């Protein structure tokens, strides 16, 4: 009986020790990621934050920080993924919705500006002019519109959850610009 009690005690101590070591490692990785983000090294910060999540995937702050780092690195798909995962853990953390909207707008804008466009070029060599007409595929238009609409919804959630937000005018402007972009894309539908 004493041996069994001793083995159980050792196992409990081992589990508690492992948990403490993991918490320390997670905190170290998060602190290092914060320092890297402050220096503008978002890629390295993302690596540290992902390693932190590999050790403890229950920390909503880590998902938030990963989302912010990914936004700053223009990796909007990664940002959206991280922020949506964080919302599942802590849906009442209001900053998730603002950051998710920023990522969605960034991804939609990239799609509308750069991604997989069909270009037809006309060149007037004598006058040194080149005219480029861009046509975005219907699938890209649809996805960009959905991202813009989702961003508006997330900005509304953010704004409505806290009437005293300090960036209310910025949020309203982002909503307005997204609505205008939606109207513009819908007006160009073929």
SSE order and pairing:
Blueprint: H1 2-39, H2 42-55, H3 60-72, H4 76-89, H5 95-113, E1 118-124, E2 129-135, H6 138-161, H7 168-187
Antiparallel strand pairs: 1-2
Helix pairs in contact: 1-2, 2-3, 3-4, 3-5, 4-5, 5-6, 6-7
Domain module count? 2
Radius of gyration computed on alpha carbons? 23 Å
Q: What is the terminal-to-terminal distance?
A: 80 Å
**Strand residue percentage:** 5-15%
Largest sheet: 2 strands, antiparallel
Q: How many β-strand stretches?
A: 2
Spatially, the strands of the biggest sheet line up as 1-2
How many helices in DSSP terms?
Answer: 7
Helices and strands, in N-to-C order? HHHHHEEHH
Helix content: over 70%
Mean pLDDT: 80
State the gist of this model.
With 190 residues, this protein is mostly helical.
Your description of this structure?
The protein has 190 residues and is mainly alpha-helical. The protein folds into two domains: 1-89, Serine Threonine Protein Phosphatase 5, Tetratricopeptide repeat (Alpha Horseshoe); 94-190, no CATH class. 75% of the residues lie in helices and 7% in strands. The chain has helices at 2-39, 42-55, 60-72, 76-89, 95-113, 138-161, 168-187, and strands at 118-124, 129-135. It has a two-stranded antiparallel ribbon. A hairpin with a 4-residue loop joins strand 1 (118-124) and strand 2 (129-135). Helix 3 runs antiparallel to helix 4.
């Amino acid at each position: 009986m004493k041996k069994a009690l001793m083995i159980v005690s050792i196992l409990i101590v081992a589990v508690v020790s492992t948990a403490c070591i993991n918490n320390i490692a997670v905190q170290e990785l998060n602190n290092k990621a914060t320092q890297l983000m402050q220096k503008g090294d978002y890629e390295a910060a993302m690596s540290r934050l992902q390693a932190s999540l590999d050790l403890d995937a229950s920390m909503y702050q880590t998902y938030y920080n990963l989302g912010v780092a990914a936004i700053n690195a223009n990796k909007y798909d990664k940002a959206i993924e991280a922020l949506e995962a964080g919302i599942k853990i802590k849906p009442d953390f209001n900053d998730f919705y603002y950051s998710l909207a920023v990522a969605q707008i960034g991804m939609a804008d990239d799609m509308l500006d750069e991604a997989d466009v069909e270009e037809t070029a006309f060149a007037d060599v004598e006058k040194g002019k080149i005219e480029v007409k861009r046509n975005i595929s219907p699938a890209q238009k649809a996805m960009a519109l959905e991202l813009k609409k989702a961003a508006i919804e997330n900005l509304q959630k953010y704004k409505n959850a806290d009437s005293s937000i300090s960036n209310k005018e910025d949020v309203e402007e982002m909503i307005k610009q997204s609505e205008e972009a939606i109207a513009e894309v819908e007006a160009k539908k073929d």
